[in-house]
Design brief:
Layout: E1 6-8, E2 16-18, E3 28-31, E4 39-47, E5 50-54, E6 60-64, E7 71-73, H1 95-101, E8 106-109, E9 117-125, E10 128-133, E11 136-141, E12 147-150, H2 153-156
Antiparallel strand pairs: 1-2, 3-4, 3-7, 4-5, 5-6, 6-12, 8-9, 8-12, 9-10, 10-11
Length: 162
């Protein structure tokens, strides 16, 4: 049983601190226990305030650790070599940095529920992002974004079969 991988944040922070040296990277985990933001995949990296998860379909999702309630290793799962991917992420990676790097690209903000939205991330200004979704221009406070991932051109054009 794995008890020592997740610890409360220190220094007044409100999010989890993932102890990467303990060995969750490369393991199959469930992020959050239930609800629309509950996702299962391989933990690729956890740096600063961002957790990187690779879903079984290959999508890479970046979680704002401020909104991650739990990370549960799935029992009887073998480690993959995904931990080696961690080297691709700079040690200073932050959730805001991920959002900035996704500028002018088609993204999905949040994994489900009423706050899930897809569109072109027009930019990051101050403490908010501007997203163009259809004919709407939406400003979303970064603090309220739970996760973000890039969407493929296939999904953008509505040919994903959903």
């Amino acid at each position: 049983m794995h008890h020592n991988f997740i610890s409360p944040a220190t220094g007044g922070e409100s999010h989890l601190s993932i102890q990467t040296h303990g060995g969750l990277e490369g393991m199959e985990v469930r992020v959050n226990r239930g609800g629309p933001e509950s996702v299962t995949g391989t933990l690729v990296a956890s740096l600063n305030d961002v957790l990187v998860l690779k879903l079984p379909n290959g999508t890479v999702v970046y979680f704002n650790l401020e909104h991650v309630k739990s990370v549960t290793p799935l029992v009887n799962q073998n480690r993959t070599r995904a931990g080696a991917v961690h080297a691709l992420f700079p040690p200073w990676l932050t959730f805001r940095g991920v959002l900035e790097s996704f500028g002018h690209r088609f993204v999905q903000i949040n994994q489900g529920g009423p706050e899930k939205v897809e569109g072109i991330l027009a930019g990051v200004t101050g403490n908010a992002v501007t997203l163009v979704s259809g004919k709407e221009v939406i400003r979303i406070a970064i603090h309220h974004i739970r996760s973000v991932n890039l969407l493929t051109a296939q999904r953008k054009n509505g040919t994903s079969g959903r």
